[in-house]
Protein 1
Amino acid sequence: MHTIDLAYVGRGLHEELVAYIADQQDYYADEGVHVALRDGCSWDEERLRHVATIGLGRALLARLADGVPWVALNVNTHRPLFWFLARAGLTSLADLAGRRLAVHAPRTAPGCFARIVLRRAGLDPDLDLRAVVRRPGDYGMDLRRLHEGRIDAALVGSTMAPEALAAEHGWRVLAWVGDHFQIPTVGVAVDPTHIPPDDPAVQAVVRAHRRALHVIHDDPDTTVRHLRTFLGRHTAEEARAHYERFIAPYFTTEGQADLAVGATAITAVAAELGVPATVTAAEFYRTREGPARAGP
């Protein structure tokens, strides 16, 4: 049996769901690979380069900004699972002008994506709002700060179902990042300097993840059962609504990247980082040929 380390670099469904299903359904074992799932959230780039990674956004930023030759071999979705969650009284992204927004650092993938969305809403993220930069965890501290009025809004990830939280607390989901910015994101990526893309262990992981993607589309009950592992604060009905709204319509069926979406996203990310777009979508997203399912 082959062995490989696979690191997630963010917490929640966005990064972990497909790998979790592959593990729980024994697809890794079926494909002849032992996968050690590693928490790489706090790893520096040099350490991360020695393992396969789920975080395609971080990998793309590292390739554009630092020349690290990451390549993506499988793509789970083109819609980043991050949301702008705000206290009562705010109704749109434009209302964030002059407000306190808890957000990821600018040169992290979710922070970069958020800045792109804010600019498209007519806001300068450096001048028009008060950014409270924090390291993401389960975003529980953001919820506390919203309750206490210490912040006005937060960019939160998929450790929660934001629409259910908004309904419970009288808050507002101002925007889903995936509605405003698409990019082939989360899947499997390697740095060929250290791990060849055709390594048998890597290819076994890719096959297992594509089987997990089929579960997401073909077996909602099993998917929601696994999904509830990540959404412990929510009811079964809330978890299913989250699956039906954000997961089922937008996760790919075969792990394929839409290269047109990828090309547009690379241009936008490079512009936000202030660096040249030195890699094409076809060079970075090396998935096998076939139609992508990126959602309607």
Protein 2
Amino acid sequence: MTNCLVVDDEAPARALLMEHLSTLPGFTVLACLDNAVDAFTFLQANPVDLAFLDIQMPKLSGLDLIRSLKTRPRIILTTAYREHAVTAFELDVLDYLVKPITQERFMRAVSKYLHAQNNPELPSPIPSRYDEMYMFFKVGRDQTKIFLKDIVFIEGLGDYIKVHTKERAYVASEKLGYMEQKLPDDKFIRVHKSFIIAWDKLLSYNPDQVTLVTDILPLGRFYKGDFFRKIQTGNVCLSEAKGS
């Protein structure tokens, strides 16, 4: 028997998950809640094996709920937004479902849960290593998958960004400030009002510029303090040679 918890602030989304779960023998929904605060309280008092958890909720987000739990069940995140995938990977959730959730995609997520239960020594099927992390960027009409390890730097172009890899550059519909918030800060840093760089693509630096594996970029005066502070404290992930 698998005890489940469904948490989503939207009634149609809760109903759809309940409908999907009703087709599975051996899965019991202990509670169906509309907010993460009540979910936190429920999890303190009840044995839950698998939680379906929405991300965007009032007062407390699904991601904040996960961070608040000392012990937690297996978690499958449900969301209408793809951009939280990187954070989800870091939190080692079991799977990440983008709404609307089809029965076929739902069953694949449940299969991951069953596989993990039968093979507890295996790592989670969802990528948790940095070299497996990726984001989808809106390039033209397409959602283009780009692995974070391939990004050298990101250039701000007003309401757009240009994502530079060693092979090519992608112009995507997004703002640089938003990317600064979403990218892992031990892997990327903003060095200029127009540039975010990947730490592991940094070859050398001086007070005025940074040299990457593909380009030389200016180091803006408003960003120097944070840049040098992280260099000095070692709170970065560098894999290339660094200058002084």
Protein 3
Amino acid sequence: MKQLYRYFIAIVIIFLFMTSALHFMPKVVRFGQGTGAKVRCPLVPSELGEQAKSNDDSVRKWPSWSFIRKRSRKTSSKLPNIWDNDSGEDRIVSQMEFTPDIQGDKKVLWARTSEFNVPAGESIFSKCPVKHCTIVEDEDAPRIDAKMWNQQFSYLDVQRFNPAKTKPAEQVWIIYNLESPLATPDYYLLDNLFNWTASYRRDSTIVTPYERWRPKEAAKISKKKRNYAAGKSRKVAIFVSNCDTTNGRMNYVHELQKYIDVHVYGACGDGSHNCDRFENQTACIETLKRHYKFYLAFENCNCRHYITEKFFVNALSSDVIPVVMGAHPDDYRAVAPPQSFIHVEDFNSPQDLANYLHKLDKNDDLYNEYFQWKGTGSFIDTKFWCRLCALLNDPDKPSVVVESLSAWWRPPGICLRKDQKWRDSY
């Protein structure tokens, strides 16, 4: 009996200890939910929970509020807006056109080349307007002006690198991230550590989108008529292998299939339609381009600005109309050619969407209206490394500190759950 009593006391102590630990542990965005542990996204990060619930008008919703402290130098750059990450613009073209007054002093950038798919040395900058940069892998190099880390950097790395002793005051630390907030570590305990951000988000220091549409000045719609529906006998396709996502995209697909033919390629399909994108991406895209009228460019989560190659490569470049789920409709409008896509939130239900797709399928004139953007612009190389080198060489670059990386990366409303809509958020 005494033995059982000891076991009971031990269990109670362990339970109390774990409860306390969980209470005081910084909250993260990812939570396990049963077998498979899919991720879900709360609307507010732990640092801002109480503020975001407030009705105080001074508490501003993203993207208006900022967690980045910026102090200007005595003079301004030739193009002041290249540093204006609060403008809502991506500033990509301005940064591409920016050529600072070079001081003759090369900037050395430390990066793990295998993680960024770049070679060490100066070759990546050889065709840039500003070439005064080089990449080294040796973190003990005698001089390093900037260090860049990929999205998997976490507070566990801080102790190993000990920035309090190893980071000079003028050294720029950059966090590079092309994943959604749901696919990255929680960035707590990284306050006042990073200076610049590089991601697809338009409030990044260096905006790095998957693609970038640039319209031609005074471009006119071509009078040449092409029927983009010609020869296409199939309606809707999707390539998808991640079946359990926070936005419930496969639930939407299954509901849509009740009202219109949707061919599912990949692990989430029933096996009746096969195309191994990893073995032969070109053949898969060619199948899509020749036979289908619509492509479901559904992201694996609904997060602001998060728009991947599913939209740009699989759909827009394949002459099919993309039906999108993911970022806010305004985010698509900001990066896409005009009237080039259909957003699921423009419809009350999958059935309503299917009815509209049937309408387009039966009317080639209406279908071709979604391709009037052809010839009015192009998708451009955003020249990330060139822009990075130019900004590093700017003698007037502001002193920038990300006061809370976690709060910047996961502000209120950055992602939605599958039971939420962008139109209801703000």
Protein 4
Amino acid sequence: MKVNHIEKSIDGKLILEDITFELNKGEILGIIGRNGVGKTTLFRTLMNHYTKDKGTIEIDGKDIETNRELYEHLFYLDIQNSPIAKMTPVAIGKYYQKIYSTFDSEKYDKLIATNNLPKNKNYHQFSKGMQGLFNIILAISSNASYLILDEPFDGLDVIVKKQVLKLLLNEISLSDKAVLVSSHNLTELETLLDRALILKDGTIVNEYHLEEAKASMKKIQMVFKDKKVPRIIKENAEILTVQGRVMIGLFKEITPEMQQEIDQLNPVLFDEIPITLEDLFSSNLTDEADFQLFN
């Protein structure tokens, strides 16, 4: 799936601007951003719940707007605007069979039974954990090629999260589906994602292939004798945290020449520590104010 230069305004306010990315089968792509940055708006726009102002969405090289049958390849459950709240799993299954021609009723019924979900109880009567499990069961039973999941782990306890993750990863490994997912819990996402897109002010400001980023970038814990931040650090590091005189910065790279200049400053501490997805996210929020703490 290719998303090309999508823009969307709501009530005269630009929410999404020039959104462009690809989602490949067999991969899990994360959309990372603060609350209100436009993640849900993006998902609704991809599904045509919101009409986009500009741009195109393609599946296998075809524009889904002119080939509307291709929407069957996308799954997104918008809980806030879905009719399923007062429906039972039995009724929901029949409803989705009409939407997805390849809906796997056998898999759906089996997963409902295996996970001990009540077939004749309304969705809104389910616990948060039951809803989370059901949402994933519905997604993978749709047989859509691209699953769009908005905060799928929100409010789930540890046991249910493990069940949700197991279902999701098993489906991807067996069927080569692709997942586009957002979550506030970056620790959970880190174990899942192949790539992450950072969404800020309605646009994608960075993209990370996680394994490559961790291999090439350096996260350094450092302390200098002088209370001011050295010029070379300001020019080459994105400050993640500051506690007293101890700061942690993220370097895209540290060349031998840079290391030599840093060594000449005789830092009290300059140690490499492991990089996390949260670090990559935080690095995109750094501004000059982070350095002012030292001045």
